Structure formats: C-alpha cells, structure tokens
Amino acid sequence: MSHNTFGHLFRVTTFGESHGVALGCVVDGCPPGLPLEAAEIQAELDRRKPGQSRFTTQRREPDAVKILSGVFGDDRTGGRQLTTGTPIALVIENTDQRSKDYSEIRDSYRPGHADYTYEAKYGIRDYRGGGRSSARETAARVAAGAIARKVVPGITIRAALVQMGPHAIDRARWDWEEVARNPFFCPDPQAAKLYETYLDGIRKDGSSIGAVIEVVAEGVPPGLGAPLYGKLDADLAAAMMSINAVKGVEIGDGFASAALRGEDNADEMRAGNAGPAFLANHAGGILGGLSTGQPIVCRFAVKPTSSILTPRRTVTREGRDAEIVTKGRHDPCVGIRAVPVAEAMMACVLADHYLRHRGQVG
C-alpha cells in the first residue's frame, strides 16, 4: 500500500491499523532546536481520543504517545528536549481492541465503507474496524500536527464544529472560549445544548449524522504557497479531503461565492501601517494560491458514520445479496472528533509551505 506520506519539506508518514499492535508516524524535515516534549503532543491527542463523552465511540484508548527519536536534551540544553533535525518517530499503542465485534461481517461489505474498494484494489483487507482505513489512523496525524504548530512562528490554529445535520450555529454567538466547554467543540453555547438532545436521539435510533467543521489559522505570513501547482488552498483542500469521511471542502466563502456579484466578493483594501488592510475576507486568506496575511478559513463536510445498527442491504465477497448490521463501538457523529484532526492537517500544510517559502525566498 503506497501513499502513506504527505508533505514536501515537512513530511509526515503514518503507519498502523485500527486493531493492530500500535500506530504512529515519522515526521521528517522538522527544523532543529525546537523545544518538544511528549506532554505537548499528548495534550493534542487528549482532545481527539475516544470515550470522553456519550457522544463519541466508547472505545477506551489512552492514546499515550512515546517519542522514539529526533529529540535530545541534557545540561547543555538546560534540560529541555530539543528537536535535532533528524526524523521524529512517534508511537501510540492500541490497548482496547475488540476484534470479535467484526467477525460476523468479515465476508460482507459494509455500505458506505471502503471494504469493497480496498478488496478490489489489494485483494486483501483488514476487516477489524477497517484496518488502515479506520479513523483511528488520525491519531498519528494529530501527533504530527502538534510538532507542525512549532514550525511557523506566531501562528494560531483553531477549529470548531459549526453544523450538525441540518442545524447550523448562530455566528452572532461565536465564542472561541466555548469550544473547550462542551463535548462538541462548538463555539455557540445554545447550539451545543441543542446538539445534546439531537445527537442523543440519533444515537438511540442506532443511526448517525454528518457535520461541518471550520478551521481558522491566524498569524500566517503573506506569500505562502505557489501560484500554479503548489497553491496553498489546493494543498489545504487535499489535506482536508484526506481525513476520513470528508466529502466536501471550501476555502473562505467557498460555494457561497457563486451567489455573489463581483463587487461583493472582491476583498477591498485600504492602506495600513503594515501593508494593505483588507476590509473583508471572502477569499479565506488565500488569493492566487498565496496567503494574504489574513486569517485562513477552511470548511469541510463530514458524512454520517457508515457503521450503524440499522440493517442495510449489501453483498458478500462471494457475490450474494445479504443484510448487514455493524456492531462495535462507533461515533454517532464522527465530525466531533474531526475538529482536532482538522487543526493538525492545517498545521502540517502550513509548516510545509512555510519551510518551502523560506527555502525559495529566504
């Protein structure tokens, strides 16, 4: 299986399966001399790990990360662990697999999952929780993202769940502090209350629901990206689309731009003390594939979790019609835990483009 690596100068390779011994990543290209402790990576993983509320999968994984290489510290570094510039290897052990939950469906393709496509391509698949296609793989991305945040100076990356099913937040009530106060990473406290009742009903029905996630990066310097085949927004879209269950991505106003007139869509400017001051940000902080210095705004849609208790029609490996019910422990709304993953992918892309920019223009 190829293509387990993304990035150019800041490169991330992930490995492992949902029900394997462990998963992890190797980060290559991280500059030397950056302070890095396992606790900093752990803080990000703790936001993504399962079993933290009744609204996510009840699989109990501590997601404890170990740094295997790429850092060094002694009395010459003041006791701090610093990156050495060599590959940083991270590992996260799996401790709460229940592979028997999947024994009944090993010969049937789950609708909405990659079971059929994996077998059609490789001739073999790990049916235990989806193997490599499981969203459990995103733990490694979150770990890599914790390192990537250190590469670009002065950057702030935050994400939030802004819609669940048909219920969007009221942006007039947006409060970033609220994101950490509820189990949905939602910036609207009233919407978060609604989601509790709404998702409880979805979960008790044995079903699932989709969501929309918004991720914002502030403090990004202008000029990151390349005008043609290395567009910053193209790489961001590819990174977000690589997250499990993501089916659509937009930058800035995205699809809403199609309904705007030219005078409404173009972000006007006035002279400022530190260069042009933009009067709006319909472009989402990227013009011509290059960052403008404004906040970068990216949004993506996550489909409903395909593992549900409602019987679904399918076929078996032998080509027979069948019905299937997916048992086990699953997220009724996988979009919730996609929030820290979105931040991590934004961080990795920006770190890569920052290093590429520095390498080209100094």
Automatic annotation (TrEMBL):
Pfam families: Chorismate_synt. NCBIfam families: aroC, PRK05382.1. It comes from Methylobacterium hispanicum. This is Chorismate synthase. Reduced FMN (FMNH(2)). It comes from the Bacteria. Pathway: Metabolic intermediate biosynthesis; chorismate biosynthesis; chorismate from D-erythrose 4-phosphate and phosphoenolpyruvate: step 7/7. NADP(+) binds at R48, R54. This reaction introduces a second double bond into the aromatic ring system. The keyword Amino-acid biosynthesis applies. Belongs to the chorismate synthase family. Homotetramer. PROSITE patterns: CHORISMATE_SYNTHASE_1 (PS00787), CHORISMATE_SYNTHASE_2 (PS00788), CHORISMATE_SYNTHASE_3 (PS00789). Its EC number is 4.2.3.5. InterPro entries: Chorismate_synth, Chorismate_synth_AroC_sf, Chorismate_synthase_CS. FMN binds at R132, S133, S134, N244, A245, G288, K303, P304, T305, S306, S307, R329. SUPFAM superfamilies: Chorismate synthase, AroC. It is an enzyme of class 4 (lyase).
